[in-house]
Amino acid sequence: MIPRGSSLLLLLSDIFSRLAAFFGTSRGEVVGKLINSAAIWLSAWLAYQVVRRIALRILAHVHDHSEVLTAAEKRGQTVAAVVRSVGRVVILVLAVLLTAAQFIPIAPLLAAQGSSFCSRTSSRWGTSSRRRARAARWSG
User: Do 70 and 129 belong together in one domain?
Assistant: First the structure.
């Protein structure tokens, strides 16, 4: 009978072997990438803790210990909420992109997304149509 701990190790070894076969690489490289991914998410969590601490310091700075909320306290709460929300989104997007970069090349995806965004905005709100309209108005 196989001890319980070694069956878990065999299962993990099999999972890493399958991942390595899927990505066309070695098991050691897969383990290294998974460790890098764990470090990315740990760093993201730590960065979010810093953002939360900054938001709490903003709230503490504007709090005047009265029962009625002043305008400064309301602004402070709004700024703290914005800092938390924007910080969370930025950190999450960076963590997802960095994690994806561990396993797939994301540069072509980002370049394609940027060029499609530029082509959409230039065709929808493009300067060329504005220039033509302005030129038509001025030419008489």
Answer: no
- Secondary structure (3-state) at 113: helix
And the tokens for 119?
């082509």
Structure tokens at 96: 């997802």
CA-based torsion, 22, 27, 29, 32: positive or negative:
positive
Number of CB atoms found within 10 A of residue 69's CB: 13
pLDDT (tens digit per residue) in 19-62: 888 878 888 888 888 899 999 999 999 999 999 999 999 999 98
Most confident of 78-92, 93-107, 126-140: 78-92
| 36 vs 102: CA distance, rounded Å | 8
Structure tokens at 131: 């220039």
For residues 114 and 56, state if they share a domain: no
pLDDT number for residue 89? 97
For residue 137, what are the domain limits? 107-140
